[in-house]
User: Fold these one by one.
Assistant:
Number 1:
Amino acid sequence: MNIQRTQIGYLVGGGLKENFRVRLTVSPQEMQEGAFVVIQSGLWNYYGIVTDINLGATDPRFADEQTEVRFPAHIAKALHGQTLYANLEVLPNLMLEVGPELGTPEYKDWQGKIDAGLKDAPRILPVKNIPPHHAVVSLANEGDIAEIFGDPNKESNFVIGYTREQNHPVCIDLDKFVQRSSGVFGATGTGKSFLTRLVLAGLMKHNQAAVLVLDMHNEYGFDDVASDTKKAVKGLKTLFKSGVRCVGLGAGSTIRGNQVDFNLEISTGDISTSDIETLSRELNLRETTPTILNALYGTFKDKWFAAFRSMSRETVMIEDERGKTKEVPAEGSVAKWAMENGVNVMAAEALHDKLRRLFSQPYIVDNPAADSVAQIIQSLEAGKHVVLSFGEHESDLDYLLVSNLLTRKIRAAWEKKTNEFRTHGKAEPKPLIIVVEEAHKLLNREMAAQTTFATIARELRKYYVTLLIVDQRPSQIYDEVMSQLGTRISGWLGDDLDIQAVLSGLSGRDSLRGMLARLQPKEEVLLLGWGVPMPLPVRSRRYDEAFWKEMSGGKKSREENLKELGFGG
């Protein structure tokens, strides 16, 4: 099939257990690490990315000596062409049967067998064999990119960026993206928040899943100002208006002066003992805590938190049978309750002291004005997107408590709806994506077993709930959770452990390590995993006026896409 491509070299070696080696027929300065290339061989195309570029010589002496100094220019040039060369290392990923030359009898016979069901239709496959020596190697063209990563004009395909060599659009399949948990990673200051905004806007525009954003730093709902450029940045509420509901934590709370759609108040009756246990590290709780919490629940049931909060530390003086006065715990005190229930008094009082940080939080009330937790769940069930902004309550303690309690309730609601759908034929649940910032605080090795989030990452895909975790230190996230992530979108990472964590479980990860460490901060990302057919570094889109226009309904032209990247007038 005659498809115009830029030929760059030919295959000279390699295999399935190692990278392919390609002899360049163009200057190595025309190539980049991460370039997407096609190897054409007969009926098959092989697709891979460049992982290394190296220089070689037929004899080391020709590389060591400057022949252009010793010989006339025409002789030196001839010697260079015969003795010095450059090779590419290419990580092969996929192969596709393309058939004989279009219009030939062989092509007609090949297509006829497919139409008659005598031969499987061509489809993208993992690389299972290798092309022969001297197979032609070219840069992938726009058609190749669309063949592998999807047509940008298809509704479910979201353009996340462009190839670095020729600026062809590269898509993420959002239908696949929402089927498994995913991650956005990048070191601090590399544009991770803007990248997350891009992905969230794409998901909301596609509208095949409801999105709950646990917005710890109040970045996503309302308009903001970029910290580096000082330019205005549109919030998701501005882009999608009534499709996004902004929720503030605590009665009367506003977000940077903006009125929210409603406020979230936590009822004391909604706080479970397990919610407190997830705060063990943050509150420095003792090993005796579960015993005390179980005793509190056994005494007061769902009202245990309110009852414990109302207990005093007072004592009273009484006379004993011998007429002597002594100090004893007062009615309604922590010590009195502990003594009556066989609980260590000092341990109970120590727990009471540590929970004062929660007792004083204004968003935890006995009788909320409305069941705002239910409001959030109802909004998500109806397909609305919810951004929960923590406002002034930005401490890790607030984030851990509220996010875990809310997702625990959501998990129960989605499990119930899924079981009703499968058992009684009721309405199918709306897929839900929960966006978790600072994910290592909730999903580290110590916390993962205690929070709802690890369960969601492992099991809740079958209940239509997945996570989108956003973090700058992926190495601190429990490896079992990382292994469950489908699509991974990563900006620059400098720490070797973080790079290793992002690439864990992926084939060819050794070849990709250097590529991830050499991404251009705030400009390039590496696409990996379930939502993309093969790893590929791309120049990421800008979160700017052109993008906002497209998300609001307009469609950008190719010229506008290139202009946003700095190409063209």
Number 2:
Amino acid sequence: MDNRRLILLVIFSMSLVMLWDAWLKHNQPKPVAGPSVTQSATPTPTAAGQVAAPAAAPLAATSAERAKAPKLTVETDTVRAQISALGGDLVRLELLKHGANNDHTKPFVLFEEAGAHSYIAQSGLIGAGLPNHKTVFALPAADKLVLKDGEQALSVRLEAPEQNGVKVSKILTFHRGSHVIDVAYEIANGSSAALAGYSYYQLTRDTKAAENTAGFFGGAQTYTGPAFYTDADKYKKVDFKTISKGEAKLPKSAPDGWVAMVQHYFVSAYAPKQGQREFFARPLDGEMVAAGLIQPLPQIAAGQKVTVSVPLYAGPQEQRELSDLAPGLDLVVDYGWLTVIAAPIFWGLSWLHKLVGNWGWAIILLTVLIKLAFFPLSAASYKSMAKMKTVMPRMKRIQEQYKDDRMKMNQEMMELYKKEKVNPMGGCWPMLIQMPVFIALYWVLLGAVEMRQAPWLGWITDLSIKDPYFILPIIMGATSLIQMKLSPSSPDPVQQKVMMFMPIFFTLMMAWFPSGLVLYWVVNNMLSIGQQWYITRMFDSGAKPANS
């Protein structure tokens, strides 16, 4: 039975070693691809419901052409965007309420034409004379448009050159307090014939992974790449490597669904409200990838005007805003394989945060509630540990008496456990039961953007990264040592050495975990110490000395 306890400790230690190995892989330098300015060819729908490149793709815009293209800046209370005359593309998007990874005073940059990443949102029309993302639009006369106080929306109208009597305006509408940008096309058919065609919406990005948050311990690599969703095929990730090999398996044409480009904490997504749509993903020059969707335009009779619109979400992975926009869009928040536990934990944290207004205090209150939920089982385990302390002298005598007869020693030990009704495994249950909660909370801190750059108090200014001064890990190590002293020591010298090493090992490991997770463990340790001390004291005062 004692060997089982040792095995459990070894398994737990190996799990932490594996997390450490994953962290090293997570933080190793990523291969750097050169910046690319190559634009994709316009996608075309096929009769089979799939998307293929046209036989003769338009020439890509050169870096000089893109640099020369006029740009317009739009600013609201949530974003600062830059729109290029070339295609009306969103070539830069700063999130004003989210700080950059390395400098919280500067806004986080999601879209950028050149810099750390090449990542832009494009759209266009397919059909004779219709503008695509290589068409040069006429921008408004102003260099910058700002959402004024009292205004709830700001629309930017871009005019395409008239072709064969067909006038097209691209209209981008920004909303107060929102990360949704409506991308609309107003098509006025002034020709003498009916007009048919398609609209397409694509996210173009390089294949480099998003930067890690400074100092963040990542037990698993967070996903960077395209994702698709339909009611029939559900949520599906399609990684860059699969797309580059031409092996991407995409959802079938559907009357619902969306396409997204996912990275740690942030996402962009086109989510049409209605209409049939086809999905596509393909590699481009310069280690770029395009992922998007195509929708047929309604038949536009001569002299008729039609407007089509698709919302673009570009911002943080805030689950409420995502789920309000489209079904399944909140699935981009990745909680790993323990989503069934992590999702309720995040819900509970969010509810507590509304009460106290601070994510750190919410974690502390959640720890107390979890401890109360597990109180009966923990109490039974601590009682078992207290009983083990009373029979420890007899166990040592049995070991000394039968040290040359291992089988007889095990038989006598089992008889002692049975007689005294003690379980040598009892002390392990509190730790084992908490592990799923511990790992699920880790995934919440890893995936929930609400935790990003969220302060607690004093030196803890970001609960999603490590404690900069390692104060919480040291407290965690000290409380673990106190817990070990309160627990019965094993008569096995090997197990004693393992137990002595564990607090040191935990402290070193916890030094690189998110401070929010270490805060949970520190509070849990303190509550456990109080509970264990009280039960042990109560048991000792009422227990009779063990007979020889």
Number 3:
Amino acid sequence: MKNIFLMIIAVITITSANGQVLSNKQKKYTEADSLRGSLRPERAYDVLKYHLQVQIDPEERYIFGFNTITFKAETELPTLQIDLFENMKIDSIMHGTEKLGYKRNFNAVFVEFEESITAETTDSIQVFYSGNPIVAKNAPWDGGFVFKKDEEGNPWIAVTVQGTGASLWYPNKDHQSDEPEEALIEIAVPNGLTNVSNGRLLGKTDLHNGYTRWSYKVSNPINNYDIVFNIANYVHFKDTYKDLDLDYYVLPYNLEKAKNQFAEVIPMMECFYEKFGEYPFKEDGYKLVETPYLGMEHQSAVAYGNYYKMGYLGRDLSGTGIGLKWDFIIIHESGHEWFGNSITAKDIADMWIHEGFTTYSEAVYIECRWGEEDALEYLKGLRKNIGNQASIIGDYGVNSEGSSDMYPKGANLLNTLRSIYNDDELWWKTLKNYTLTFRHKIIDTKMVEDFFNAPVETDLQPIFDQYLRYSAIPVLEFKETGKRISYRWKTDVADFNMPVDVFINKKEIRLTPSNTWKELSKKVEDLDDIKVNDKEFYIQTEFLK
């Protein structure tokens, strides 16, 4: 979710008059970008499991431990790439009883086997490491550890690394295309503190050295950046929704506030179960954990730091007032359990698959609670945060995210698709089928486009192209031609045929404009008699006189 914060404060002032602006594409990428973002031959393996065991020293801000990476080779592997930030020391890499050699190149570590791992072989390496991880300057805007004290002076420690990379603090295959099928996360913290990580708590062990190890088992595939710890003097309370365990971890002096605020989880689950299907990580349970930063979608351990306020830190991102009816962090970050955690983009260039759908889930929740009109007004209000200065999709293979417009523009694209469908029963059925079909899958934009294109006669591909691959949105032009009114689309994409609803003399009709001028069949006295349904369609309108 991190770019949403930047989106809020973005200054949207440099868009040219005709909407044509430069994309976000960089002219040059570094070797480090390619090492992180590309699927090189040394990454031709499938991660099956992580066993991460780490001890964290709050005073020295130091960690040490190991990660056992179990994998299946997809091709013959003489060398295997893992990732760990340069400032972290690799103490040794073990392959059974054999100590392996390795070479570093930026944050990439190339592990060298004496004998190649043959294709289709399941094997493992154990990476022992230590160091002082990067401390975030302003989490979650930037990645790193967060070392704070609560109001009672107790340590309050967490980590957030989306975008920056999980290899900031533990060795892994740091690419979104691959997730471990399961994970064992064991974090040792000073006695008297609690650690909350992803998955189910297996138990805790007194190490008799002033530390207690907390062990958690994740039974589902999990993104690298979702694997976390949360260390504090937590108190725990719980609830259930159907057969889903709801566990809450908060600071003791916020317990009563949390019981009141977290009551919103139940109506949220009711809505999301109806619209998206059941919670995708039921085996691991759902946790909401108070954190010393605003929030993140950490799978089955959602980070919450909204200070028990409605909206986004007490503000409404839409400017409509509707965003103050609910707690933004609870809804947005939990929405990511379906969109981003369950359904994951293969390359971060396609992160709109996470953020566009999750921002749309905010409107879905509003519609469940307060009706469609409020949801439409909210989505329209979010448009003030859209810059239309760069494409939503980034560059592939170089660890490049697209524009932060992926949040509100992605959501408004989905709402526009719903309007094109013009059949709510079909829309909701398709959306739920999408979450079920790609449950626990890693996908790309083409797969999303094909899925939503299939149920309707209108070819959605040019529409996806315009909204995702160009900065400008479609412009619907009207002009007077003698005594008639003509209309057309002005777009970057050729052969753009998107239906749109307009009001003519207050009566709604559906037009099917193309890139060539068409005449209105209905007589209109004046251009002022035409109003576009801009709540349901995210477009620009120009009246040429």
